[in-house]
Amino acid sequence: MGNVFVQGQHLNSQDLYIVITDDNGQLIDPQEIAYSFFGRCENKDYKGSELYAVGQLYRSPLRLDTGQYYVGERINTAFLVGSYVVQWIARRAEKSPLEVLGEIEFSVIRES
Fold it and tell me: How distant, in Å, are the alpha carbons of 6, 38, 45, 61, 96 from that of 82?
């Protein structure tokens, strides 16, 4: 897993981000975009591979440029040491359905 963050670290545009394009590869801004954090159950010593929501769902990302969005918040203490997923969802146009655009796995460690 390439993305490892420390509890308390502030994320920037190089950390958890997404790039959105149309069918022709052109960068586009969707009608709506959000992300949610999910932890893996083993973080809480639960059995299985199910996910649990971490904090508020459907958070608003920061926009870097056309079609480029990122998580611009701090990895707070609600993130136990362990494995996580950030899930990106969007509505590309006003009448289109919400869709999952992607997921990025990451880990949280304690500062040593």
Answer: 11, 11, 10, 23, 35
Averaged over successive runs of 10 residues, the pLDDT of the chain (112 residues) comes to 88 97 94 95 68 92 98 90 94 92 94 74
Number of domains in the chain: 1
27 contact partners, CB below 8 Å, separation of at least 6: 19, 20, 21, 65, 66, 67, 68
Q: Which CATH number goes with the domain that contains 17? A: 2.60.40
Please give the residue range of the domain that contains residue 42.
4-109
Q: Which of 84, 73, 86 is nearest to 108 (CA)?
A: 84
